[in-house]
Each structure stands twice: as structure tokens, then as C-alpha cells.
Amino acid sequence: MSRFNSAGKIEEDLPKARFSKENLKDAFFIFSFVKPYRTKFIIGLFFLAITSGLSLLFPTILGDLINIAVHAKPSKYFGSSLKTVFTVLGILIFTTSLLALFRIKWFAEVGEKSVADIRIKLYEKIITLPVDFFYQNRVGELISRISNDLSQIQDTISTIFSNVIRQTIILIGGVTYVLLMFPDLALWFLSVVPLIIAFAFYFGKKIKTNARNTQDALAQTSIVLEESLQGISSVKSFTNETFEIARYTKGLKGVVSLAIRNAGFRGAFAGTVMFLMFGAITLVLWVGLTKVQQGLMEIGTLNKFVFFSMFIAGSLAGFAENYTQLQKSIGATQRVKEILKETSEVILKDALNSEKPVFETSLRFNNVSFVYPSRPEQTIINHLTLTIEKGKQIAIVGPSGMGKSTIASMLLKFYEPFEGALELDGKNIKDIDTTAYRQLFAFVPQEILLFGGSIKENIAYGKPGATDEDIILAAKTANAHEFISGFSEGYETLVGDRGVKLSGGQRQRIALARAVLKNPEILILDEATSSLDSKSEQLVQDALEKLLINRTSIVIAHRLSTIKNADLIVVLDNGNIAEKGTHQELMAIKDGIYKNYYTIQAMEKREDLD
Ligand SMILES: Nc1ncnc2c1ncn2[C@@H]1O[C@H](COP(=O)(O)OP(=O)(O)O)[C@@H](O)[C@H]1O
Ligand SMILES: [Mg+2]
């Protein structure tokens, strides 16, 4: 599995983008997405070739025009009448503009459509990747790929690629023409080209490194921004506004100074190129005009050469710029490809047709051991064997960090056992379609995240398309109806960003309603009442009791008072079962972990009440 640590790291890890065989493959990869829109793309390319070729006629015609006017020397192809040649010029201008109009529009269209396709593909991929991927990669990073990398690719398809083609045609055509027609002048002029290329490489490298550092520094400031705004209550409670502003300012100053440094390089590069170009043109003018003075050359012919030189110079400068852009796009493509190469855990096509498997007898951990892939040295679950019988309520208790949530993750097939197997009615769940398997469950996680829509939409997430009656019934079962009705907008009340407008207990009851609505075979609750005050706890507890009747459930709890009635209580310790039994059985164990734990909690509770 690939791992991307920070924006900077990835670029460094990437092989330098040069036009190797690999890179050509990457380029073709982009064009595989262009394929559905190839007709317009190919016609666009054709137009591009025509307009680029035609544009090479401009300098010749302009030169001819001057020769006709000054020397009365007829044009080789268009005769000696100014009117005729101007007409030709007019047609030329009209045709190139018209073709350019369509070409630009079509390339943009192809770029938009094909990149939208890649975006969707990438999102489809990311959302179907296993949970672990999201622990190993930063979400900000993934979002940046979907937005920034793909914008880069889009630019390539819609403009950069066509610029490069146009510039190549003009460069090859122009250089060939001047070398054939004006060998001596051309050699004077072209002698500066190797110098420019050398400078381009020298400065190009510096600019690229610097640009990357600037990007990194900018990413760092975004992190400050993101963290401080997300944790705004911590910032304020610790009155750390000034501290955060200083952190942000410092970061930004770094960005600015790097950017200014880079501007210096760019300025030096552009200045040098300008100097060399104008110098070369001046030199050529000197040589050329001397010839004109001596009567060896017409002024219009010299003009042809000067116009051509300017064309060539312009293309050369543009080519350097576009070349770096192309390199960037190839880098972006590689990153996109890396993600697309990851293995999805859910096949979307199959997911649509998957049917809930039948659950008949039991769900069983058969000698399961587990380590997190990212932390292989720490065994979390150690040869665990546990049978969850249909219709029974199993409680899992134990100190925090003991692997309770990990057990929930494994039940949901977020992670595969390192050893042993989970079995549904004796069948290894590895062999059951993931989507189908997960349909058996509803899961109320430890940290509840509500989506930014209305309360109604949030409950309906448990069963998309549920009727209003169903939603209200579910809310009633979860003891949520009352407080929801208390809001002036009722079920249409918008839940703020990440549900902050609701209290912990309210969020928890909405999550329960969501689970009720799904009406699952198996319910998993991870510390559903841990963060609640006694009153909310009581309400959630009542809701739970209704929910748990006749349902297989795995209740992970910190507060033992909430699971006293469970059919089986499992006490976890060091990745395995330390004690197991009903409340009465466990309380009967002399010096038992559960007993101690329960006694302490009962005492705390009494103190609370005092
Ligand atoms: N995604 C993860 N990657 C690596 N280690 C993890 C991950 N999630 C949890 N852990 C570690 O696994 C152990 C058990 O965690 P967890 O199952 O959340 O415990 P509990 O729910 O009992 O408090 C902890 O030591 C925790 O640091
Ligand atoms: Mg936990």
C-alpha cells in the first residue's frame, strides 16, 4: 500500500518526470480518458495543425507585401497586386481565427468532460478503498489530488498539449524555412539558441525546486488554518489566538520570501532570454540591413526573416514554459494512477445487486489474532475465540486501548484477521461479498459524525428512501422525537458542520434512530452512552432497551451499569478474554476484574449523587 505523508514528500518520492517510456505510458493513460470524446479531439488536432501551418505563411506574405510596395517586386505565388495579396492575407486571417475558435472550444470541452470522468473514477476508487487506506493517507492529501492534480491534467488536455503541438510545428517549420532561405542570417540568429536552452535548464531546475518548496510552505500554512479553525474552541479556551496568528504569519512569511526568491530566478531568466533574443535580432538586423544597403537584399525579404525570427523566438519561450507544465502534469498523472492501482474492497457493480445474506445461528471469532498493518509490532487481539449467538446481547468491556473498537471494526470487515477467521454461520466472512455482509449490520460508532444536511436526511441515511412516517417512528424509538420536535424547524432543522449544533446526547440519539431505521440483523454499539450525562444516558439507555429486544447485538461499554442485563459479558484484557459470563456470574468471581471494576464505578456513581 502506498503512503503519502505530505505534499512535499510525494513529489520527492516520484521519479523525475522526463520523456521516458514510462512517461509516455502516463501520457497515454490520460488520453485513455479522452477516448470517448476523440472525434472532437482529433478534429481539433487537425485544425491545430492547419492553423499552425497557416500561421507560418504570415511572415512570408507580410514580406511580400513590403517588397511589392517598396521594390515593386512581385510575390512568388500571389502576383504583383497589393489588393490580391491583401485578399489572400484577409482569407488567411479569417480562416485561422475561425478554426481557432472551434479548436479552443472543443479542446476545452474534451478537457472538461474527460477530467470529470477521471474525477468520478478517482472518487469511486477512493470511496471503495478499505478503511485502513484512510488511516495511512491524509484526507487533505486525497482531496488535493482530486482537485489540484486533476486541474493540472485538465489544463494539459485543454491547452498545454495543443500549445506544445503548435509551438513544435512553428519551431520545426520556421527553423527549416529560415535555414533554407536565409542560411547565413539564420545561423547568426540561431547561434543564441543553445545558450538560451542552457540557461533554460539552469534556471528551470532552480525554479522547479523553488516552486515545490513554495508549494510545501503553502501547504503548511493551510494546515495551520485547517487545524486552528477546526479546533476553534480549544484555540479560544486557551486564548491562543495570538499564538495561532503568529504561527500563520510565520508560515506565510516563509511562503512570501520563497516566492520572491523564485520571482528573482524567473526575472533573471526572462531578462537573460530577452537580452539574448533582442541582441541576436539586433545583430541580424545589422548584418541584414548592411546587405540591404549594399543592394544585396530587398527590405521585404529582410522583414520576412525578422518576422520569422520573432515567431521562432516566441515559440521557443512558450515551449520552455509548457514543457515544465507538461512535466508537472505527468507528475500529477502518476499520483492519480497510484491511487487507481489500489485494490477496492467493494466492487460497485456487484454491490448494486448484492443481497443480504441470511444469518441463522452465530457469528464467531475463531482463534483470531490481529495487528494493525501500520503498527505490526503491537498485537491487539491475541487468539480470540468468541461466539455471538443469534438474538443474544453480548457486551464487551475493558479499559480503553484494549481493542474493543478494533473488535467492532473486524466484525464490520474493516480489517481482516491476521490469523484465524470470523465466521458467519460457520462460513468465513472473507468469502462473503463485503457489501452484502455489511447489510446485516448497523453500527453506532464511538465518535458520531452527522452530515451537514437536515436531521431528517441524517436519520434517513440508515435507509435511503425511507418514508417520513418511518423516520419519525425511528426517532421515537430512539427517544429523539421529543427534542427534534422542540426545534422550530423540527425534522428539517439543519445540522451544522459536523453536527456541532447538537449536544452529544442528541447526536447519539440521532445515530441510534439511523440504526433503528435500518432495522439490522446485528447491531453494534461502541460506547454509545460513554459521553453522556445521567439524564441523557437514561434516555439513550431506554432507547437502547427497545432497540435490543430480539436482536443480536454487540454492545461495547465503558459504564458497566448499562450492560448489566446482557446475555454474555466479555472482559477483555491484553487482547484476549479475561472473564466471561453474566453479570451475576462475574460478580461471583472473587477478586475478579469485572467485580472490582463494577464496585469502583458503583462507588463513583454514589459519590456523584451525593
Ligand atoms: N488505525 C489504527 N492503527 C494503528 N493502531 C491503532 C489503530 N486504531 C487503534 N489502534 C491501537 O489499537 C489499540 C486498541 O484500540 P481500540 O480498539 O480503539 O481500543 P478501545 O476501543 O478498547 O479503547 C490501541 O492501542 C490503539 O492505539
Ligand atoms: Mg474504543
Distance between the termini: 54 Å
Work out the oligomeric state of the chains in this entry.
single chain
CATH fold-level assignment of the largest domain: ABC transporter transmembrane region fold
Name the shape in a single word: elongated
Helix content: 55-70%
Radius of gyration: 35 Å
- Arrangement of strands in the largest sheet: 6-7-8-3-9-10
Largest sheet composition: 6 strands, mixed
Name of the level-1 CATH class of the largest domain: Mainly Alpha
The distinct ligands, each listed once, are: adenosine-5'-diphosphate, magnesium ion
CATH architecture of the largest domain: Up-down Bundle
Averaging pLDDT over every residue, what do you get?
85
Detail the poorly predicted runs: 1-17
> CATH homologous superfamily of the largest domain, by name?
ABC transporter type 1, transmembrane domain
Characterize the structure shown.
With 610 residues, this protein is α/β, with parallel strands linked by helices. It has three domains: 7-341, ABC transporter transmembrane region fold (Up-down Bundle), CATH 1.20.1560.10; 358-440 and 522-543 and 551-582, P-loop containing nucleotide triphosphate hydrolases (Rossmann fold, 3-Layer(aba) Sandwich), CATH 3.40.50; 447-519, Rossmann fold (3-Layer(aba) Sandwich), CATH 3.40.50.300. The protein contains 22 helices and ten strands. It has a six-stranded mixed beta sheet, sandwiched between helices. Helix 8 (183-190) packs antiparallel against helix 11 and helix 11 (241-293) runs antiparallel to helix 12 (299-341). It is elongated.
